[in-house]
Amino acid sequence: MGDAKSADALIEDLLATSGLQGIKDLIADSRPRLLAVHAVESAGMNAIPRVLAKRFSRELDLPLESGISQINRVTHTGASGYHRLAFPAVFEGRIRETD
Fold first, then answer.
1. Residue 48: its pLDDT value, please?
2. What CA–CA distance (Å, rounded) separates 12 from 36?
3. 32 and 56 Cβ atoms separated by less than 8 Å
4. What is the count of structural domains for the chain?
5. Beta strand 91-97 with 64-70: parallel, antiparallel or unpaired?
């Protein structure tokens, strides 16, 4: 619900940092950028994707972009795979580099 401190604590508890070296090896010859995409949910903006992207940006030394948001409400919580296919998320915006 937009609580970055709680999202950061969750990521700190659950992120398997041992896998980060494998990601570094996989992207060694390229320079990908990370894009933090978010949706406004019924309870507010979910801070977890943004905080996780910032953490990956730091750990992997990759640029972080923002500016893309989900523009429709899909109500996927507890939904079947068929519902998810019938009502996909739609995103819009312009990518911009963040600090």
1. 86
2. 18
3. no
4. 1
5. antiparallel
Q: Contact, 60 vs 23, CB < 8 A?
A: yes
pTM for the full model?
Answer: 0.70
DSSP string, 7-25: HHHHHHHH--GGGHHHHHH
Q: For 47-79, what is each residue's pLDDT tens digit? A: 888 888 999 999 999 999 888 888 888 877 788
- Reading the block at residue 81, the tokens are 């795979």
* Residue 60: closest CA among 15, 94, 28, 14: 28
Q: How far, in Å, CA of 97 to CA of 42, rounded?
A: 27
The domain in which residue 34 lies consists of 4-97
